[in-house]
């Protein structure tokens, strides 16, 4: 097996105190997440701790795995919160056979995940939720579904809630060559991925090795380029 940054990032997340966990919500839906190791303790053990860390749910945007979206935030946040970083359905290790495709369905799955894990009332303190990009829409639906008894604070970042068809057309014109938003956001070749990177990354390095893009496509994590930039800039 060749070198892959996927393994490196997962190791760093592990060193921050998070552990991978997979929960079968029902016969059709399975959610994979990384959670603070303290959340794997029984509720009685949490209650006996002198200082209780509040749970914080981090919801990623379109395409990356959860821990990759939040790789730069996990370390500082893990020192103050008990983190829950799920992979949304159809991303990372989360899957479903349900035909439903909506932010509300994503939110319902996450709400069930929290319940199964015993996170939030009446088991533990209320949860704060942060979502970025597509995850911001899901965060809104999580807060709406669970209500103020469960959700204490909500952070929605970089979510274009007012985006319309004109914005999509303007983006395609800037991209050049892409015939649809789906084609732009779901690259199939390294050339497609380079085009997306030029749009998505501020001050993209002049040279990015071809193997980086090949590995991104292989592991189906298009946000991988951000990790490369984080390391080398």
TrEMBL record:
Matching SUPFAM superfamilies: alpha/beta-Hydrolases
Domain AB hydrolase-1: 56-202
Molecular-function GO term, any one: hydrolase activity
Annotated InterPro entries: AB_hydrolase_1, AB_hydrolase_fold, Meta-cleavage_hydrolase
Keyword annotations from UniProtKB, A to Z: Hydrolase, Signal
First and last residue of the signal peptide: 1-24
Residues passing through the membrane, by range: none
PANTHER family registered for this protein in UniProt: SI:DKEY-122A22.2 (PTHR43139:SF52)
Protein name per its UniProtKB record: Alpha/beta hydrolase fold
Species in which this protein is naturally found: Musa troglodytarum
Lineage: Eukaryota, Viridiplantae, Streptophyta, Embryophyta, Tracheophyta
